[in-house]
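ok so i was messing around last nite and threw this chain in just to see what happens. nothing serious, just curious
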Amino acid sequence: MASTRGSLWTVPNALTLSRIAVVPVVVILLVDAGPVASVAAAALFIVASITDYLDGYLARKHGIVTTLGKFLDPLADKLLVLSALIMLAGMPCVMHAASGACDPRVPAWVVVLIVARELTVTALRSLAASEGITIGAEELGKYKTIFQIFAIVGLIVHHPYAYVDFYALGMFFLWVSLALGFWSAIDYGMRFRRSLAEQGE
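result:
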């Protein structure tokens, strides 16, 4: 696979930069808790998430992997996901008509755990790179991202549509993504430790 280190304006990089540009728009839309703004924010989040798949696919297919792209792609993913979760944690609670209970859109402690997981994995990757160790992404991390996207879309929409409780679905996917996230972080740490041990042999 070719690597175009000096190139900035490749299609994959443009898609990644567009994902970063979408972040403040999603944040502004999430200031309004109404159904129209929620659906618009969810739709924009879905489109941005699709670009995450497209930029990687195009970069691999056409051999235009860049150093900048390797830096921007995970940064764009984290900005999009964490910004949405932080905004959701600060939004008004969801009222249940049957019980009268009011649940937070996203519990703040869950967002703290997700941020801590992302920072820990990023630190491990930086440490691995400093040791000359390359540890590829594993399936667990990919599944975590997929469930995270489903969770955030459901929690953004949160209003019932066609008898579908998007809030309940979003919370279900969020718990699954949280479990997969920590499982993948532990797996990453174990693989890093094995790689260090192999280097020392």
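not much to say yet. The chain has one domain: 11-200.
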